[in-house]
Write a structure and sequence with these properties.
Order of helices and strands: EEHHEEHEHEHEHEH
Structural class: alpha/beta
Oligomer: single chain
Number of helices: 7
Number of domains: 2
CATH topology of the largest domain: Protein-Tyrosine Phosphatase, Chain A
Length: 210
């Protein structure tokens, strides 16, 4: 899958727009690409070389990696997370899944935040509530799951599709019940949270309900 990005190119004469196709989703990745372009220009690389470089960049594993599992689209963004990365991932997920009838976001702990941990998990909960709709689900996993869920509820997200839990294979199977055929799922958390652990239990649970 390719994603369009463009920037204004200023040289001698009139400015013009140059477009690129990136392999990485998200406005945050487009901004990073444009910053890399500016650095490459400053270093003297020509436009064609820069375009080839940007268009040849491949995203790392578990960086909004799209998987098809039993007729569900699973976006595995479990490589790592901090508050800005969480919010950027939610925004990219929303953009990628426009028109999808049901979305499930499964958000793990963000580690190494010290005394600000609870407040920053609350911030992510607010962002999650803004990202999803009334027909969607938010699942928070880990020590600060309650803070994330309470913030999402404060922001107006309510109902049976708002959950805080600790990870277990049994809970992952329960989470699968919230994800019908045709839905989209986001997995995001710090490296230590190992959110990819959800994948195998989800596969098993989905297979049992085909």
């Amino acid at each position: 899958m390719r994603f369009p990005a463009s920037c204004n190119w200023f040289e001698e004469g009139e400015p013009r727009t140059r477009s690129f196709d990136l392999s990485m989703a998200g406005e945050h990745n487009a901004r990073n690409a444009i910053a890399a372009l500016a650095a490459a220009c400053e270093m003297g690389f020509d436009e064609a070389s820069i375009a080839r470089g940007l268009e040849g960049v491949a995203s790392a594993d578990m960086r909004l990696e799209r998987l098809e599992i039993a007729q569900r689209a699973v976006y595995n963004d479990a490589y790592n997370a901090n508050p800005d990365a969480m919010i950027a991932s939610l925004a990219a997920f929303a953009e990628l899944t426009k028109g999808v009838a049901r979305k499930v976001v499964i958000l793990g702990e963000m580690r190494e935040l010290g005394a600000t941990a609870r407040a920053l998990h609350e911030e992510v909960g607010l962002a999650a509530a803004r990202t999803v709709g009334a027909n969607d689900a938010i699942i928070a996993v880990g020590p600060h799951a309650d803070a994330l869920v309470q913030a999402a509820r404060t922001a107006g997200f309510s109902g049976d599709s708002l959950h805080a839990a600790t990870f277990s294979e049994a809970f992952a199977a329960d989470a699968a019940a919230l994800a019908p055929i045709g839905c989209a799922i986001l997995l995001k958390g710090s490296r230590g949270a190992r959110m990819e652990r959800f994948l195998d239990p989800l596969r098993t649970a989905f297979a049992a309900h085909l």
